[in-house]
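Re: the 102-residue chain
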Amino acid sequence: MAQEELQKQAGSMVRPVPKEPRKFRVIVLNDDFTTFEFVIEIMITVFGKTRNEAEIIAETTHIHNKATVGKYSLDIARSKVAKATSIAREEGYPLKFEIQPE
């Protein structure tokens, strides 16, 4: 029996497959006070980057004044940015991030 017929018999309708949540880019911004090593540490501990990925992000930030850290759902992007910003402030760094829709 076709799925459509089974659903009619059961009195149900086909539900659309939920879309994947919209993604947002997290961007780290360069400043003149946050150390290169601290940015690398944040990338590893908060954003789950490898050492090599973290170094590339830190270098790109230094050269271009910003770099994309990753793409996340809005809730995850906000959570990671809040955690990274909190750690930076505790250590006395003005490290900043932006969240932009993809």
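The chain is about 50% helix and 20% strand.
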